[in-house]
């Protein structure tokens, strides 16, 4: 599974961009875009990556999610599970700061939360479900 492929599909669907639109705006061939989105083409050069990012130049958050997804794809090998990739959102973080009590959780629970946190930028539905569950169980 490619995190980048999933993130790119999500961003193009949000903007109702067809593969031909993505190809045209990135100056890449439609067949290359098709192979990239289908998973048939795993080779994504830095130049092609930057060309795709430029298509989303009006949306820094979308660009950040694509960069994070590419980093997730590169996170392999021994020790990779210790690497955390996240997207900063200073404005949202400042407006949402809340005093929470310190809670000690098991190592397995901490790992589960870390994994879920890493998936939220890639799956907006997961984030909605987590927030919904938190509100359901008393989060204000």
How would you describe what is shown here?
The chain is an all-alpha fold. The protein is 61% helix and 0% strand. The chain contains eight helices and no strands. It has helices at 3-14, 19-26, 30-38, 46-55, 60-74, 90-95, 107-119, 124-136. The longest helix has 15 residues, at 60-74.
What does the secondary structure layout of this molecule look like, with pairings?
Layout (H helix, E strand, L loop, with lengths): L2 H12 L4 H8 L3 H9 L7 H10 L4 H15 L15 H6 L11 H13 L4 H13 L4
Q: Helix/strand-derived class?
A: mainly alpha
Radius of gyration: 17 Å
Secondary structure tally: strands: 0
Low-confidence stretches: none
Global shape: elongated
Summarize the structure.
With 140 residues, the protein is mainly alpha-helical.
Descriptive key words:
single chain, mainly alpha, elongated, 61% helix, 140 residues
